[in-house]
Design brief:
Layout (H helix, E strand, L loop, with lengths): L3 H19 L3 H14 L4 H14 L2 H14 L3 H18 L3 H19 L12 H17 L3 H12 L7 H18 L7
Helix pairs in contact: 1-2, 1-3, 2-3, 3-4, 4-5, 5-6, 6-7, 7-8, 8-9
C-alpha cells in the first residue's frame, strides 16, 4: 500500500483540530475526522479525537460506541484496557446501563488475557496487576448493581484464591486486604 491513506488521514485530522479548536466548530470537525477514519481506518489518533469531540458535544450514546471502536484499534494492552475502562464508565455512570458496562469490563479482562496468551479465567492476562484488580473491582460493583450476589461471591473467592467451600466472609476479608495493598502501592492521588 501507499502512504496516501495515512497522509490523507493526517491532513483531515489536522483540519478537524483547526475546525474544532480554532474555529469553534466541533460539529464540522466530526465530518473531517470521519474522512480521516475513512482514509485510514486503523488510525488510533483519529479514533481518539473522534471520541473526544463526541464527549465535548455531549453525544454520550455515540461516545460509548466510539470508545469501543478506539479500544479495538489500540495494540498496547494497557492503552486498550484504558479505552475499555473509559467506555465502561460511560455506560455505567452516564448512560446508566450497568449490564453493558459489565460486558465491557469482561471484554477488557479478556483482552488483557488474550494479549498475554492466557485464558480469561486462568491467567493474569496482559493487564498490570493494578489494572486487573481495578477491572475486577468494577466487575464486582456491577454484579452488586445487577443483584448478582452469587457471582460476587464466586468472583471474590476466585480472585483471592480461596478454595471452593470456604465462606464468603473469608473472601470479603481478603478483598479488603487486597484493596489496602493496592492503595499502598499506587502513587499518591492515583486511583486504580
Amino acid at each position: 500500500g501507499t502512504k496516501a491513506g495515512p497522509q490523507s488521514s493526517a491532513l483531515q485530522l489536522e483540519a478537524a483540530r483547526v475546525q474544532a479548536e480554532l474555529l469553534g466548530q466541533p460539529e464540522v470537525a466530526l465530518g473531517s475526522v470521519g474522512r480521516a477514519l475513512s482514509a485510514d481506518p486503523a488510525s488510533v489518533d483519529a479514533a481518539d479525537y473522534y471520541a473526544r469531540l463526541l464527549q465535548r458535544l455531549g453525544r454520550i450514546e455515540e461516545l460509548g460506541a466510539a470508545l469501543g471502536a478506539l479500544a479495538e484499534r489500540i495494540a498496547d494492552p494497557a492503552a486498550k484496557a484504558g479505552a475499555y475502562r473509559r467506555q465502561a464508565e460511560v455506560y455505567e455512570w452516564q448512560l446508566r446501563r450497568p449490564r453493558e458496562a459489565l460486558l465491557i469490563v469482561e471484554r477488557r479482562l479478556g483482552a488483557g488475557a488474550a494479549a498475554s496468551g492466557a485464558t480469561a479465567t486462568g491467567g493474569r492476562g496482559g493487564l498490570a496487576p493494578a489494572g486487573r484488580l481495578a477491572s475486577l473491582l468494577v466487575q464486582e460493583r456491577l454484579f452488586h448493581l445487577l443483584g448478582r450476589g452469587a457471582d460476587v461471591a464466586q468472583l471474590q473467592a476466585r480472585r483471592l484464591g480461596i478454595p471452593q467451600g470456604r465462606s464468603v466472609e473469608d473472601a470479603a476479608h481478603g478483598l479488603t486486604g487486597a484493596r489496602i495493598d493496592l492503595a499502598l502501592r499506587l502513587p499518591d492521588g492515583e486511583q486504580a
